[in-house]
Amino acid sequence: MASLTELANPTRFMRYSAVLLPWFAGAALVLLALGFYLAWFVAPADYQQGETIRIMFVHVPAAWLALMFYTMMAVSALGTLVWRHPLADVAQKAAAPIGAAFSLICLITGAFWGKPMWGTYWVWDARLTSVLVLFLIYLGIIALWRTLDEPSRAGRAVAILTLVGFVNVPIIKFSVDWWNTLHQPASVFRMGGPTIDASMLQPLLILAVGFTLLALALHLVAMRAEIMRRRVRTLTIFEAERLDRLAAQGAAA
Amino acid sequence: MRRAFFAILRRDLALATRAGGGGELALVFFLTLVVLVPFALGPDLNLLSRIGPAILWLGALLATLIGLDRLFQGDEEDGSLDLIRASVLPLELAVLAKGLAHWLTTGLPLALCAPLLGLLVALPAEAMLPVAATLLAGTPALSFIGATGAALTASLKRGGLIVPVLVAPLTVPVLIFGVSASNSALGGTIPFLTPFLILCALSLAAIVIGTIAAAAALRQAD
To answer: Would you indicate the residue range of the signal peptide (chain A) (predicted)?
Structure first.
């Protein structure tokens, strides 16, 4: 908690993040390169799903990150509303497009896997539908950011929406499960096969960590950009006020 | 405090009935949507009666969501929202009164008209009452989830589609249980009461969460 309070100073955050960023990006690069090498050339093709199993190495980390970033946004939302942490809404704003991108990646890779395996790009399976609704919630949050002009006010409004969404996500998941079992047996599409083999688990874990570091690096970049954007905005307002004053003095003189 | 609560309720009901553009427009919109569906699907009565509950629920959902952006915007523009904020009445109760008024002028008429519109989509007679009951139990959830969205965008000059975009994903559970309760009345393996009780629970939870969140949003916009 103490370190979080320390980071409340944007200048200090900029300094720390400038140091951390290359390490995150570098580690992500190394792990992703290693993970993709293992996934493409070392991991065997699945005896049932063939080469399409390699899609899973992107699909699963994307799904996990889509959920992780929403959780992070909910925590940031608490930070905005309860502790009034000045960087919380910056973190929240920077996280939304990244989370949306990962849920989209999850959906698209899922579709590419589904075509050869299920014979269709899309089925209204419970899990697919939940991720799609999560994606829509992300889009709503981004839309609200874009419609409200003043950053701190937009931050608080989005924080409330994020928390309401966070309460709703488990309810949506539960109801979609109910709806799905009502319509079609989900078991058809379950990979009820063997538990995952070590030769596949290892690259999956490496890639999961790699993608997480990549996402965190992107998040840091986005946060830094947002802080800069707000500084520019403040400076522009100051400058406009100064010119306004000068003009008023000129008119009086 | 009770007087202030009822004053807001009475004022909103009077505005909705006299100023126009409120509840009755939602009803007309509901009717239009239900009429449009057969043009898209074809006049096959068997198909229409099978998906009748879904059509009615979708129509009611859209009719509720479309008009929601005005729920707080008018009050924000003419300054009455500032008076409400400054009054002794807790903002939560004020939001509750406004949400209740919205439901009384939108959700309640929609639910009462649903059996009539059910005739248009050849809804079987035994499904009329359950569909109306599910709409009666489910529309409060729509009004109050929507109130949160409306409160978040109260100060916007160009609201429009943003409220439905924000709110629609959150209404997925209501839609699922509303339609499945209506369908279970038409036959099927699950008893009517199971999804119906969950629908009631969703409504009650939405009234609490929606009221608190909308009040928080209105406070932040200050």
So the answer is: none
- Residue B221: its chain A contacts at CB < 8 A? 153, 157
Pairwise CA distance, residues B51 & B183, whole Å: 9
Mean pLDDT of the region A210-231: 92
Per the structure, the complete domain to which residue B143 belongs is given by 2-220
Q: What angle do CA A108, A109, A110 make, to 5 degrees?
A: 90
pLDDT tens digits, residue range B147-162? 999 998 887 776 678 8
Picking from A4, A172, A148, the residue whose alpha carbon sits closest to that of residue A82 is A4
- Total domains, chain B: 1
Which chain A positions have a beta carbon within 8 Å of B158's beta carbon?
147
ipTM of the modeled complex: 0.83
For B38-47, how does the pLDDT look when each residue is reduced to its tens digit (9 = 90+)?
A: 888 888 888 8
Which candidate from A163, A165, A179 shows the least CB-CB separation from B176?
A179
A140 has a chain B CB within 8 A of its CB? yes
CB contact (8 A) between residue B173 and residue A171: yes
